Amino acid sequence: MNWVIWIILVLIDTVIFLNFIIAVISDVFANVMETRAEQAIQKKCQFICDFYTAIDQNKMNSGIIVTRMKSQSHGENWTGLVNQIKSMLSQSEAAFLNNTEKIVSQHIDAHTRPIDEKLNAMNESIKHIIEKLNSSSTNNVP
């Protein structure tokens, strides 16, 4: 008889303990669901701040990213933001390459201009010498 009472008490304790665990997990789940939207926005803002810090620490406070969501689906909103950031990066890269190309071109022009001027002066001198040689050779021919 003692064994039967012990088994019944163990089963009742197990059911009570499982009910307690389910209640705690349900409470935690409810808290997470209440703060889900705020946490998602906070994580996205943290990502944007980290992105700006990684790009250029000197320009951290010079601008912000403004996005508009096209649909209300959670996955598409995040993908849209990532695609906009990728687009902004590719535009920045294109502008950087264009500016770099202009700077390099100006630098090369600035350094080659004196050389071109010297070569043109030497070319004129050589032409002048050739003309003198031609005129003196035609004068010396009997």
Structure characterization notes:
The chain has helices spanning 2-34, 36-55, 74-140. It has 3 helices and no strands. The protein is rod-shaped. It has a domain at 71-142. It is an all-alpha fold and 142 residues long. The longest helix has 67 residues, at 74-140. The model has no long low-confidence stretch (mean pLDDT 79).
Biggest beta sheet summary:
none
SSE ordering: HHH
Stretches where pLDDT is under 50 for at least 5 consecutive residues are none
Could you say which overall geometry the principal axes of the C-alpha atoms support?
rod-shaped
Mean pLDDT score: 79
What's the tally of helices? Answer: 3
Which key features would you list for this structure?
mainly alpha, 142 residues, single chain
